[in-house]
Specification:
The chain is α/β, with parallel strands linked by helices. It is built from 22 helices and 21 strands. The strands form five sheets. Strands 1, 2, 3, 4, 5 and 6 form a six-stranded parallel sheet that branches. A six-stranded antiparallel sheet has the order 12-9-16-7-8-13, with helices on one face.
């Protein structure tokens, strides 16, 4: 006989399910869902009005890699110190219609990933704002900070949508929205100061190290990366593969960098010296030409993006190019024309020369690249492993390489150093409860974090089941970490290893094919509380996997499309369906 479900206490903050309590599996699932929902409601409920009579400032955020979360936590601390208590920031997916309607002062920080996509923890909020349940916000004053990557066509689309929709629902815009590029500090910090000035009527103070976001900050960052030694560079893909996938290990030495499975490592690259010399020749300048206190060659090598054309450069060429065909192409089909063409190709086609200073102003700063870590600190505390595809393509008679992937593959020898810093991702990691089952979908280099997850589960002696769906083109050449994965399947660490090599048979097979084939098992695991993780390509794979997930839930759960969507939304809200896609 199983126990009766208890009445939960009023304070749910520290309540956990006793592992020894005699609940049935169905009762455990119900109770876990109840507690998660109750905690979410508590988090999203409007805070009490402070004693001074001013309504609280609610700081909300949607974040994919942690940058928007950091901006939100720092802002909340700054507001509180200035006399406008903000409390702890809340994820957007924890805010329902009633909670939003009760918020008189709201500040939202939201990133955009890929080409215009909402972060997973902001998607339900988007649905709320678009749906019939969206509340009237005539009593709400708000401000929005949007984070994105200007190289994408739909720059800061998520933040722009939220800003527009809040105004359409009657809310009053306190400040103009700010759109931040990858180097978000330059735009976000003045905006934070303006928000504090508006809502607190006081000058902004620097946040103290006590905040949750500040605790995650490291001595090493984009402006001050750690010089990590490349300790290993091994090609994983076979000689017959049309891909070049490599396994790297970077030594942390005495950096003090402490990572967790699921985090990302940012690598600071330098540009290809051959491309630098070709640009110098086109510009008609010697590499020793002084730019401030640095030679032009050094500036082009370390300071600017010289492969992907910036929007400013494209706009300048669209106006001034001698080639009318180019001007028309950039006006009519900009993204299509730019595909596979780099800065040098555009300059040559345009027949346009710039003065050095003007040219440099039209380029974006050279950006770091972040890669999912493919190791666990429980197994490799002083080394971080990365699994990286080397990007190579041809542009006319020249071979072009991905800036950072070929920096690692071609321009670093084992023993050389490269700048790195950690990018924590608290939302993407193995379950905290070792008894929880884990489903991982990671084709190609998307397997990277799951190698770390599995190392972690083994080191912790986790009892939960592990299921990996992996795929690529050909088993013979593209089975990354084959010996490790098959070994883990043989010894039981992997309860299931389902493979999908698309080109090994007449009909293409993908990971989503395997999801549908094993839909009964997938749905059963989810019903039993499993966490589902997806890593890899955002444009196709992640969309196809999400579509397959909805189909599986509808089919095996006996639900219609709306019911399946609600089920998936609940998984996301409970952090049981999380993605790391790019």
């Amino acid at each position: 006989m199983t126990a009766q479900l208890p009445t939960p206490p009023a304070d749910l903050s520290g309540l956990e399910i006793d592992a020894d309590a005699p609940f049935s599996p169905e009762q455990r699932i119900w109770l876990a869902g109840y507690l998660a929902g109750a905690r979410s409601s508590a988090a999203s409920a409007p805070a009490a009005t402070p004693a001074d009579g001013h309504p609280p400032v609610h700081v909300l955020y949607g974040s994919e890699t942690g940058n928007a979360e950091m901006v939100a936590f720092d802002l909340a601390e700054m507001l509180t110190k200035a006399g406008a208590p903000a409390g702890e920031p809340v994820e957007l997916d924890q805010v329902d219609a009633d909670a939003l309607a009760g918020m008189e002062r709201v500040v939202i920080v939201c990133s955009t990933y890929g080409d215009g996509e909402m972060p997973d923890n902001a998607e339900p909020f988007k649905d709320l704002l678009e749906g019939s349940a969206a509340p009237s916000l005539e009593s709400t004053t708000f401000a929005v900070c949007a984070l994105g990557d200007e190289s994408y066509e739909d720059f800061c689309a998520a933040g722009r949508f939220i800003d527009t929709r809040l105004a359409e629902l009657g809310a009053t815009r306190a400040l103009d929205r700010v759109d931040c590029d990858i180097q978000w500090e330059e735009q976000a910090e003045p905006w934070q100061a303006a928000v504090v000035e508006y809502f607190a009527g006081a000058a902004a103070a620097e946040p103290q190290p006590a905040s949750a976001a500040a605790e995650k900050k490291s001595t090493w960052d984009r402006k001050n990366p750690f010089a990590a030694v490349l300790a290993q560079n091994v090609r994983l893909s076979g000689p017959g593969s049309d891909k070049e996938i490599r396994h790297y290990e970077l030594a942390l030495a005495d950096s003090g960098i402490s990572y967790t499975a699921g985090d990302a490592l940012a690598v600071v690259p330098c540009n290809d010296p051959l491309l630098v010399e070709a640009l110098l020749e086109h510009l008609g300048h010697d590499g020793e030409h002084a730019v401030g206190d640095r030679p032009l060659r050094e500036v082009l090598t370390h300071a600017h993006e010289i492969v992907t054309p910036s929007k400013d450069l494209v706009a300048a060429l669209a106006e001034r190019a001698a080639d009318s065909t180019l001007r028309a192409a950039l006006a009519e089909d900009r993204s299509g024309y730019l595909w596979g063409r780099d800065v040098l190709e555009l300059l040559r086609t345009a027949g346009t020369r710039f003065e050095v200073e003007e040219f440099l102003e039209l380029l974006r700063p050279l950006q770091h690249r972040a890669y999912s870590i493919s190791s666990s600190p429980l197994v490799s505390p002083d080394h971080i492993a990365l699994t990286v595809a080397s990007v190579r393509y041809r542009c006319g008679d020249r071979e072009i390489g991905g800036v950072c992937s070929t920096h690692l593959a071609d321009r670093l020898a084992v023993g050389d150093t490269t700048g790195v810093f950690l990018q924590p991702n608290k939302h993407f990691g193995p379950p905290g409860d070792d008894a929880t089952d884990m489903i991982m979908i990671g084709p190609g280099t998307g397997v990277a974090p799951f190698r770390g997850f599995l190392q972690e589960r083994r080191a912790r002696g986790a009892s939960g089941r592990n299921w990996l769906l992996f795929g690529d083109r050909h088993r013979e050449h593209d089975f990354l970490y084959e010996n490790e994965l098959t070994g883990w399947a043989d010894d039981g660490l992997l309860t299931h290893l389902d493979l999908a090599f698309s080109r090994d048979q007449a009909d293409k097979v993908y990971v989503q094919t395997r999801m549908r084939e094993h839909g009964d098992r997938l749905y059963a695991w989810l019903q039993e509380g499993a966490h589902l993780y997806v890593c890899g390509d955002a444009d196709r794979m992640a969309r196809d996997v999400d579509e397959a997930l909805h189909e599986v839930i509808a089919t095996h759960g006996g639900l219609d499309a709306d019911g399946a969507s609600a089920y998936v939304a609940d998984l996301k809200r409970e952090k049981r369906y999380v993605r790391d896609v790019y």
